[in-house]
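I am writing to request your help with a piece of structural work I have in hand. The matter concerns a single protein, recorded as an amino acid sequence and a row of C-alpha cells. Could you please explain, in whatever detail you think fit, how the C-alpha cells follow from the sequence? Thank you for your consideration; the sequence and its C-alpha cells are set out here:
>
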Amino acid sequence: MPTFVLAFHGGKYPETPEEGASIMARWEAWMGSLGDALVNPGNPLAHAKTLSSDGVTDGGGSNPLTGFSIVAADDMEAALAMARGCPHLEFDGTIEVAEAMRM
C-alpha cells in the first residue's frame, strides 16, 4: 500500500496549558481514528534552518514545516480524506500531502 507524508505548515501555538491539553486531545482522537493507517505519528517541529547552495537561512523559509505524520492509503484521495480530519486545519495551519515514491 502506498504511504503519504502529511507535512504540516503554520498553525497557532496554544496560549494556555488548558488550550494545549484540549488541542492535544483533538490530535490524539484524530490519530486514533486513523487506526493502522497511521504508519508514523510524527512530531511537531521547531527551530528550522534551510540549507541551499547559497548557504543557511534561519526560520525554515517562507512556509516552514511545523510537523509531519506518515499514513498508508490506497491513493491520494484517501490520504487527503485522512488529512481533512486533522485538527491542524482548525488552527490556521495547512497540510501538504505527498506520496512517498517507491524506490
Summary: The helical segments are 17-34, 76-84.
